[in-house]
Amino acid sequence: MDTAPTPDTYTLTRKADDDANEAWLLLHDGDLLIAFVDIVDCGHVLWIMDIAVHPDYRGRGLASRLLNGVIHGSPDSDIALSCGATTMNLEEWPKDTGGLPTEALAAWYARHGFRSTPHEDDEGRMVRNAHPTPTPSPGPAPVHPTVGPLTPIHSGQLTDYAAHCTDHGQILFIPDEILARVLRNEHIARHHT
């Protein structure tokens, strides 16, 4: 009985450029590169630059094997990436018709523990925390009848602060707690006194 190859059938190797803090996990079928992930160690987080699978080898779990290799190879590191569908044009591969659409790709990363953490410079940013930060129970916050309390929103190592004004919509979503408090108080003073 002939069985189809599994993701573990293919040879996994690691290549590193320590000067650039960059590493690659590579999967080969014989001499043919069939999948890879490119990772840069930014000190506080590992950043996945690219993850790609040869068009003829897609749908076999190879990208999951590579991503799990990154996750389990660095269990104490947060891992981040910019989620977006791209095409790879490598000489060894036939013309790439593209992988998953961005929405499906984001869902795939979410199944591997990544959360969307959009940033003004990168709407597609996603992060997987090594040790998710428990949300501390908030202390008593002054409550205004129209403008709610300042609420911390944790996303990995970052915390944004938000307050919602039911009369005017969202008024704050700021990464600096002191500035968020000042702006919230200014809004209350300007519009609700």
Description:
This protein is α+β, with helices and mostly antiparallel strands. The chain has two domains: 122 residues, Gcn5-related N-acetyltransferase (GNAT) (Aminopeptidase, 3-Layer(aba) Sandwich), CATH 3.40.630; 61 residues, no CATH class. The protein is built from three helices and ten strands, in the order E-E-E-E-H-E-H-E-E-E-E-E-H. Strands 1-2-3-4-5-7-6 form a seven-stranded mixed beta sheet, with helices on one face. Strands 8-9-10 form a three-stranded antiparallel beta sheet, with helices on one face. It is elongated and about 75 Å long. The model has no long low-confidence stretch (mean pLDDT 76).
CATH superfamily caption of the largest domain: Gcn5-related N-acetyltransferase (GNAT)
What fold name goes in the CATH topology slot of the largest domain?
Aminopeptidase
Backbone shape: elongated
The whole-angstrom Rg is 22 Å
Uncertain segments are none
Domain count:
2
How large is the share of residues in beta strands? 25-35%
Order of helices and strands: EEEEHEHEEEEEH
Spatial order of the strands in the main sheet?
1-2-3-4-5-7-6
- Compute the separation of the termini in Å: 80 Å
Largest sheet: 7 strands, mixed
What's the level 1 CATH class of the largest domain?
Alpha Beta
Under the CATH scheme, which architecture of the largest domain would be assigned? 3-Layer(aba) Sandwich
How many individual β-strands?
Answer: 10
User: How many helical elements?
Assistant: 3
- Derived structural class: alpha+beta
